[in-house]
Amino acid sequence: MKPKTKIAIACDDLGFEMKEAIKQYLIEEKDAEIVYDPVQKPEDGVNTAAVLSDEMAITIQKDICRLGIYICGTGIGFTCQANKHWGIRATAVTNPYSAKRARLSNNVQIIGLGCRVNSLEYAKMIVDAWYDEPFDFATARENSKKNLHECEKNDNLLLKKPDHVAWNMGFRPD
Q1: Rounded to 10 degrees, what is the CA torsion of 138, 141, 142, 146?
Q2: What is the DSSP letter of 75?
Q3: What span, in angstroms and rounded, lies between the C-alpha atoms of 143 and 120?
Q4: pLDDT, tens digit (0-9, with 9 covering 90-100), for 54-90
Q5: Of 65, 72, 80, 151, which residue is the catalytic one?
């Protein structure tokens, strides 16, 4: 039996309803295990994007899970903050094709979804496109692998790699 994919999920107060629905979708339809879900009621998400993004990035760096989803009005601010962390690749996505390419071309660990941008059903399609086709070093385009190596070099040049990083952050095969 295939092990469950571990995933982090968070939101602001605006994204709470969609976060709860996406969480249930991940558990029931994708057989995922939610390992980080700090927002248990809408007020837990008020003005917490920076803190939650830092926590989610560290959760991924520590290899507690390797994927994360954040839901707010647009998904933009959270992913901007997450990208400040060594080894993290995060992007806001608004359509299934961009979500699929984010994972297949860039091995993106975190996606930001906008509850003011897409309906719940369309957001599920976005999640499917990103979640269902993981980056595979054996079949990935050579250019994508080279870009990941360049991203790692850039992170090493501009950011300090924390001591708690417990895996290769998807820059290389395991």
Answers
A1: -100
A2: S
A3: 34
A4: 999 999 999 999 999 999 999 999 999 999 999 999 9
A5: 72
pTM of structure: 0.96
CATH of domain 6-158: 3.40.1400.10
List CB contacts of 90: < 8 A, sequence separation 6 or more: 53, 57, 68, 78, 79, 82, 83, 108, 109, 110, 111, 112
Burial label, 164 (beta-carbon count in 10 A; 0-12, 13-18, 19+): exposed
Question: Is 11 labeled as catalytic in the residue annotation?
Answer: no
Tell me if 112 sits within 8 A of 56, measured CB to CB: no
Write out pLDDT tens, residues 18-54: 999 999 999 999 999 999 999 999 999 999 999 999 9
Q: Where are the beta strands (DSSP E) in 32-105?
A: 33-36, 67-72, 90-92
Rounded to 5°, angle at Cα 84 from 21 and 4 = 40
* Residue 1 confidence (pLDDT) above 80: no
Strand ranges across the sheet with 110-114: 33-36, 6-11, 67-72, 110-114, 90-92
**Domain assignments of the chain as residue spans, ordered by start:** 6-158
For residue 44, give the amino acid letter: D
